[in-house]
Structures are given as C-alpha cells and as structure tokens.
Amino acid sequence: MRTALCERLGIELPIVGFTPSEHVAAALSRAGGLGVLGCVRFNDAAELDGVLSWMDDNTDGKPYGVDIVMPAKIPAEGTQVDLTKLIPDAHRSFVAQVLRDLAVPPLPDDTDERAGVLGWLHSVARSHVDVALKHRISLIANALGSPPEDVIDRAHAAGVPVAALAGKGEHAVRHVERGVDLVVAQGYEAGGHTGEIASMVLVPEIVDAVGDRVPVLAAGGIGSGRQVAAALALGAAGVWMGSFWLATEEYRTTMPGSGAMQTALLDATSADTVRTRIYTGKPARLLKTRWTDAWTADDAPQPLPMPLQNLLVSHAHNRIHAADDPTVVSMPVGQIVGRMDRVRPVAEVMAELVRGYEEALARLDKTR
Amino acid sequence: MRTALCERLGIELPIVGFTPSEHVAAALSRAGGLGVLGCVRFNDAAELDGVLSWMDDNTDGKPYGVDIVMPAKIPAEGTQVDLTKLIPDAHRSFVAQVLRDLAVPPLPDDTDERAGVLGWLHSVARSHVDVALKHRISLIANALGSPPEDVIDRAHAAGVPVAALAGKGEHAVRHVERGVDLVVAQGYEAGGHTGEIASMVLVPEIVDAVGDRVPVLAAGGIGSGRQVAAALALGAAGVWMGSFWLATEEYRTTMPGSGAMQTALLDATSADTVRTRIYTGKPARLLKTRWTDAWTADDAPQPLPMPLQNLLVSHAHNRIHAADDPTVVSMPVGQIVGRMDRVRPVAEVMAELVRGYEEALARLDKTR
C-alpha cells in the first residue's frame, strides 16, 4: 500500500487519520500512517503546546500533523461575549426546552465549563499555527476551505505542507491556486462538514481537476481495506479517515466519559446519520439521535449561521456529554459508522486496513 | 475485467446497462455487456413485444435483459381515471402555473398523448413479464424492491434470473430471502429512485450482508473504468450503469427530440442534480433545472405519494419534452452527469471503461 504520498510525507502507509485525540494521533503515526491532531478543542494555546510536546515524545520520531479550523468568512475579531449577543432568545429557549424534554441534567454547580467556540475564530486559529510551527509537525490541514494566505506562507517557510478539504472540483482548484499542497476530497458520506457529492463521483472529479499538481486524499466512507483500495482505484494518493478512530481504545484514553458516545456509534447503522446545520451552522453529518431529531420538529428554529450556532449549542453539548446517554449524543460521524462494530486499538484497525487492501487487490488480480 | 458474473450471465464484461432505449440496450449487449431494457414506457404490451423481437434480432445472439417496475404497495387495480380523482386540485393548479411561468407551450391539438403512469401498475407490469418471457431474455430486474413472488417463480421456471435494487443492507437480505438472484446496490449518488447511503459505504455493506448467496452489482456514480475498478475493489461482481447511456448516439435514435435533454446533461456538473419526490412520489435523483427548482418554492405543494405524483406530472412531462428547452428538462440522472462531456456511441463508452479499468489496476499494482 505504497503511493507517492508516502515519500512526500515520510510515512509507510498512505493513511491519514484525523482525530481530536493525541493518543489516537500518536498511535496512528506509530503504526505507519499520519496522525493529524484536530486543534479546535484547544481554546488555550499553552494547552495545545503541552499536547504537541507530548506528541513529539510519543510518536517514535515519526511524522504527525495538525488540523486547524480556519473558516474564510467569520468575525475575525470580537470576543465570545459580543457574539453571544447575536443569538436570538427564541433559539436559547428552544435549546433549553429540548434539553428538558430529553431529560439531560444540568451540569453540577462546580463545573469548570469549556468555552466552546473559540477555536473557530481567526485569532485563536492563528495562535494554534504559532504553537504548531514550534513543533516538528509534517502537515497543517484546514478543515474549512483554503487556509489564509499568510498561514500558507508561514507553513511553507517552515517547510510544512498544507492540506485543505474540498467538496467540489472548483474548490480543489482554488485551493491549489492559493498554494495548498494536498487536497482532501471530502464526499457526502463523510462525517462533519460535507457537501452533497458522494466519494465515488467526487474523488476522480477532484483528481482530474487538480491533475499532477497535488496529491488527493479520499475522505468519506473509508473504514476497510476494500474502501482504501477503491479510493486508490479512483485515483487518490491516499485516504483521510476521521470517523473510524472514534471507536478506538486510545480515543477513550484522551476523552474520558466517551462511553455513551462509543456505545451509540457501535449500535448505529449506516442509515443512522443526518446531514444538518445544527452543529456549527454549516451542513455537517452527525450521528442521528434524539438530539438531532429534536431539531427536525415542526416548531424547531432554523440553525444560526457559523459561528453562532456552535456558540448556541456549546453549553448543551457539555450537558449532553456529561449526561452519558447513548440516545442523546451530539457527535459528527460519517456513514461508515455502520461498519464500527467494536472498540479496538488503533494498531489493530491499521493492520486490518492493510490486510483488507491486499485481499481486495488479490481479488482484482483474478479479473484479468 | 472478468468476474463470476460473466459466467453467470454469459457475458464478456461485468457491465450491466439499464436504459429505456432498445438501441442502447442492443449496443450494450453487442459490446459484451448486458443491455437491460427499461419497460415502464411501454403501456401497450404489443409494442413491447415488437421491441423485444427487434432486440432478439439485433443483439448478435448475445444476452440481454428487461427491467420491469413492480412496486410492492401501489393500487394493484383501478384504472387511470380512478386514480386521477385522488389528485387535489391545488396540485393541478400549481403544475399548470409552473408550466406557464416557465413558458412551456401547450401540446399541439393533434398530439396523441402517452398515458404516462400505466407501466407502474401491477397489471401492466405483469403483462410486461408475460411478454418478456416469450423472448430470449437473460435477466428480469425490478427497479423497486423485490419482485412479487409469482413473478420470481415464473422467471425461475423459465430459467431466467431475477435482480432487484437495494439501498440498504436489510433490503438486500430480504430480496435474497425471497429468491432474488442478483442484488443491485444503488447508492445515494445514483439517478432515479435512490436512498441516502452512498456507494462507497453501501456496496461493501450489501456484499457483506448477502455473503456468497448472490452476486452484487454496484450502481450509482459509475461512468469511468476507475469507478468500475473501485466498485470491484469494494466487492461487487459487476456494475449497473443507467445515467451514462443517456449521452450516447444510440439513445437519440430511440428517443427523437432528446436533443435539449442531452444538451442539458452535457452542460451539467456533478452538483447539478437533486434528490426529490416530484417525479414519482418516491425520492429520486433528477437533473436540477428550472422545473425542479419550481418545486422548492415556498408556495410549492408537497409531492403526492406514488403513483399519483407521476400521474400528476405526466402531462407536464410531455409538454416539457416537446418544449425542447434545456433549462426545463425533467430527467432522472445521477451525479455522474458531471462526467458526461460528449455524445458518443455505446461501443466507444464501453471501450473506454475497459481501458480505464486496466489503467486503474496498473496503478494499483504499483502500490505493492
């Protein structure tokens, strides 16, 4: 399973794994892929700095990357308090009522609540870039469009390639024109922010659109070696997987209290996701639960634009997380959730991807 | 590009092509695939009989199949006039107003208008089965769920295998339990009736669900050899392609006046489709045009259930077809429409699929 991407990034397997967990990311890199740490959960740059130092020490000297959310069009300045004033009262009342209806308990009085949305702001994202470039990172990815020009320039000055997600051919071309080194073709079936064009159509379309200029990673619907083989058959130089690492042992190490979430994921079929704007304000695929159902009721308000929607629901997310109820999870995940049937170590998932890939190629050999 | 499906159906390439055009179907079979003629457009059994006799004589003795629409739950009896009474006046007025707004002219007074929906009725579908079994068909497919038990029994008694479309693993298992011989895994990106699970996830899921019991064809998003290779990597025994044949020279031979439709298809990108209930009452993917846009207006009514919606719009479809305006086409097509860039003979498309498949396998070879 070697492609040109392996040379480019100094990795053994063309499998890039996005995860908010440093334990998952490190295990991915140690297993021969590229672990990419999602930074949006770090509101405090010093905390991210500490975690990246841990990554430096726990990846056996192998490459790893970071994912920083840098949307093109959100308020660049303004504190959280200012933005909060833009949220209509009716939206707040709706969320409060839904939490009551779903019997999600309030947080204990002594909870030190996370502030939620700060990682989405330009100022915070830039502090992530500052911190990340002090560590031996091998990739900066942006989960929302092209990174800002100055970020691309600084990454390149440090010899770090930049990746960006694209859901359409024209987005991919724009990324390349702006200097992006790696395009992630994110299909409809993917978890999190996603467009409407499915991987089977999108991946070769983006491969053709960018030509030889940059390698393309296929994202969306990948959780087996057969699917890696399909992605490479479509012309991708590798795969970008996010959802599948949620059902790993290492994820729980970083994210205590994710038992209910993992239970919900193991129980879900591929039909149990929904693409909705309720998580961030932009269409994102989430696990379908009583929480997502509540937003489809006749009296439910329209979700707010980014970043207000995430601000609106961030306290609810904290309560939902603490409630530990598999039926009221709020979690981005792709349709590949139907293939998650047990919680395993990252290295075991990687080994199975390789095995399944080789079996798929052996099967294709027989067609000649 | 040989799989077990080739032995099973007596074909050279595991490419099954669904098309309402006998000229396309015959060309597909002559080129080594299996042409499957969609019968829903034949309200008159004698007309179908004549067309199948033509197929017998124009396929060089090679196998071909038929596709008959046999929904499980629609009024089995009742004439078209009875059903027509169930259509609300508000829906009729809306359709009439949209046609005026879109400047779609009325039909000339002397038009011998087709009756539209009859092919969807059980009685008509059964007459199609009667007629088809008199010809040397190699497959009966049902584009809507499992065929009725008596149809399966009669096909098997005649030595003809039966195929059914599935958009979920559980549907595929139900088909197999009812005696279906071949499952078509139809992904979200497909044209016509389609579910929400994309091919990358759906195909291996259905392959695993049915196991060794029956072969699985991948449908949805296939229009290049790379995509055929991806489908086979996912575990499919072959592919089922429908949309792609709309942009062939042979299609125009059967369907005079399809110039505007073909123009619209060539102009469309993969983002220019929409999954909507306006064509038949069930979710189906159509080309996005001013006609589909009209149904998303705030004052547009909800589509009616099958088969009433198709009855409601069948006269509109006739007027739209006659109008020959690429911006007001009503046409089922998948996201692969973005790859349709010129009108070609079927044999040329087939040759390119084979070439692209071999290139994809050669590329995969280099990853070992």
From TrEMBL, chains A, B:
Stored SUPFAM superfamilies: Inosine monophosphate dehydrogenase (IMPDH)
Organism: Amycolatopsis rhabdoformis
Key words, A-Z: Flavoprotein, FMN, Monooxygenase, Oxidoreductase
Residues in the signal sequence: none
Name used for this protein in its record: Nitronate monooxygenase family protein
Gene Ontology MF annotations: monooxygenase activity
EC number: 1.13.12.-
